Amino acid sequence: MKTIKVDYPIQKRVQQNSEDCVIALGFFDGVHLGHQEIIKTAKQIADRKSLKMAVMTFFPHPSSVIKKGEQINKYLTPLSNKADTFEQLGVDILYVVEFNENVAKIPHDEFVEDYLCGLKCKHAVAGFDYTYGFKGKGDMKQLAIDSKNRFQVTTVAKFARHEQKVSSSLLRSLLSTGRVEHIQDYLGKRYEMTGTMTGKGNQVEFHFDPDYTLPCPGSYEVTISDGFFKTKGICKVSSIQSQGQLSVRLFYDSIIGTYDFIEMQWNNFIADFEMEAFHAQNDYDVGH
């Protein structure tokens, strides 16, 4: 998979070197089941039309630039992890648009002209609630108009589980209330983070990209794996957490040394020692 960074204004060489493609549009934080449905739809169209399969995403999250409503500065999948997932899903080209104030001000028709037609998009695929352009004035109906029949548009319907729309916001809410055990219902797997690890007996230090979203403070059962061994332990998250580092106490194993690649899965919540009520999860209904 080729990863191509796109600035503002879009570089002429990027447009000139682009290939006829199907483009899946979205931020895709977490690449959850709803996102996967969009990408699979785009992949099927690309294969049928013998076109390259592309994804266009943005970084950082638009809310961190527009600063209206909730601002998202931490991610379910930092950009490098998101790129790895896209490649596993069969994406050929990843366009990463640097989102800044200039990009936020691009009119919807100009965005289509420069960033879709300019990159030889022959078919655009996005979720039913996708918006684009200045103040989000472009939606999926507008996209069909702005295309001027230069490319086709496919809208992917709402994807739901347990009578709830599967969304990145839902996953963040589950994390913020410690309900990590429910995330696999919407993500398709347990919430996981990648990083490195230093072992000191049954106490290990897990180092990770500080852009990851952590669960709320408390103790969690986690599974640690390097692809060969797998072991479980307890990870405590604190409200005064060190950036990019977590301590894990292993249940059974003793590990010495440094590991360059580790996956840590969040299995379930155990206890929250920082809340008066135990543990305030009852305030959130995930539809179970």
TrEMBL record:
Alphabetical keyword list: ATP-binding, FAD, Flavoprotein, FMN, Kinase, Nucleotide-binding, Nucleotidyltransferase, Transferase
Gene Ontology biological process terms in this record: FAD biosynthetic process; FMN biosynthetic process; riboflavin biosynthetic process
Keyword check for Lipoprotein: no
EC number per UniProt: 2.7.7.2
GO function terms (MF aspect): ATP binding; FMN adenylyltransferase activity; riboflavin kinase activity
The UniProt record lists the keyword Nucleotide-binding: yes
Reaction(s) this enzyme catalyzes, per UniProt: FMN + ATP + H(+) = FAD + diphosphate
InterPro entries reported in the protein's UniProt record: Cyt_trans-like, FAD_synthase, Riboflavin_kinase, Rossmann-like_a/b/a_fold
Class in the EC hierarchy, top level: transferase
Pathway: Cofactor biosynthesis; FAD biosynthesis; FAD from FMN: step 1/1
Any matching Pfam family: FAD_syn
CDD domains: FAD_synthetase_N
Domain FAD synthetase: 15-169
Record-linked PANTHER family: RIBOFLAVIN KINASE, RIBOFLAVIN KINASE/FMN ADENYLYLTRANSFERASE
Similarity-based family: Belongs to the RibF family.
Protein known as: FAD synthase
Species classification: Bacteria, Bacillati, Bacillota, Bacilli, Bacillales
